[in-house]
Amino acid sequence: MLEFFSASTRMVNSRRAMAECLEAALGEGNTDCDLVVIHASMGHDFAALIAEAKALAPSARIVGSSCCGVVGKEGVSESMKDLAIMAVRGAAEIAVACVDGIYGHNSFQKSAALAAQLRTANPGINMVYFLAPGIDIADDRCIAGIESVFGPDVTIFGATSADNMKGITSYQMVDDRVYEHAAYAVGFADPTLDVLTQATHGFVAVGEPMIVTQSEENRILQLDSRPAWAEYTRRLALPETATCGDTIPIGALAEHLRPKLAEEYGNEHILRVVTKHDPDGAMHYATTCPEGTRLWLTVRDEERIFNDMDRMMSQMVERIGGRELVAVFHADCLARGRFLFNRVMKEELVGRMQYPLARNGEIPPWLGMYGFGEFARLGGKNEYHNYTTAIYALCRNP
User: Fold this and answer.
1) Which of 180, 290, 365, 398 fits 327 for a cystine, CB–CB 3.0-4.6 Å?
2) How far is Cα 63 from Cα 7, in angstroms, rounded to an integer?
3) Helix (H) or strand (E) holding 121
4) Is 117 helix (H, G, I), strand (E, B) or coil?
5) pLDDT (tens digit per residue) in 306-347
6) Residue 357, Cα to own-chain centre: how many angstroms?
7) b or e along 304-343 (b: 16 or more beta carbons within 10 Å of the residue's beta carbon)?
């Protein structure tokens, strides 16, 4: 059976940070394991993190991603030197796969190849932890590619990697290499485990929608018959010279959900982020976006963010029931929390998600990141989300 261990730290020296996390998670002198999952802020030396993990856990496969902050059982941190890890033991029930050169136009093909690697390595996989680049990718096509191998019943959970909210580049780590356009997946094949996933955002659509009048896959070329980036920034009251870093905190775009999905989600809209734009005025959407799609601008509703979080956690606790909660993976958006002192404060929101899942005051092994997007099921299907809190609870069945 799989065993999970986690730790997080804020430390300038990357090697020392990794050593501290592995020793805190697994115990000094007992740091070898079969898998190390790394989330690290942009200020870390990713190669040094890998080298120290390999030195202290020589048996382990190593995967990781860049992010703009971490959440562990120790709490939340948003510095340039954050590190959080999940260490896993149980080699026979773990498979790791990686593909490089994944972009919007080949997201399906690359993700299908990734899934085929996993299935060859271990046909018993019953859940897939997936981490993709956060810029220039069609995340719905990634889901479709994985499902073309495993079918729609295998739960896909995970996130997309991020930089420090600039929308320039993000990084992935697999074994001894650092990538910029790679995706990796970890397949878990422990038949005693289920993963429960759920996401919530709490933003509200406002105003009249923009209409996608020309698009190519996940690139929106025109909105309301104008160059997409020009119209998008005009609606946000920003100059056309604005960067993605300027638009990401305030520019969530909303797509309307069918009533049944909206009832489950607790919101009439699902959100999307824009992480890249081209010199010709096209902008890169997080999923494919057909012509005729209506897109609303949104505003964050602080009261709703917290109320919807409490609602989601109550549902999650009910779904877990009396089963043992062995680990929690978690992906989140920096735009969530209480806005104070010109900064979005996350501590209360994180407390509200962790406290209900604690047992006898002990938070389970926890690995969370602030990235560019989240994978969680909606309406019984694998789905991609933006601007949400997404919880992935691994439960052991009796």
Assistant:
1) 365
2) 16
3) helix 107-121
4) helix
5) 999 999 999 999 999 999 999 999 999 988 988 777 788 899
6) 20
7) bbbebbeebbeebeeebeebebbbbbbbbbbbbbeeeeee
Place of tokens 């020296």: 13
Q: Three-state SS for 100?
A: coil
Tokens found for residue 398? 């009796």
pLDDT tens, position by position, 39-90: 999 999 999 999 999 999 999 999 999 999 999 999 999 999 999 999 999 9
Domain ranges of the chain: 3-191+306-396, 203-299
Reduced to 3 states, what is the DSSP secondary structure of residue 195?
strand
SS3 content of the chain, % helix, strand, coil (to 5): 25, 40, 35
Closest-CA residue to 130 (of 371, 387, 296)? 371
CA gap 201, 144 in Å, rounded: 23
Per the DSSP assignment, residues forming a β-bridge with 158 are: 130, 375
Contact between 96 and 18 (Cβ < 8 Å): no
With contact defined as beta carbons under 8 Å apart, do 183 and 132 qualify? yes
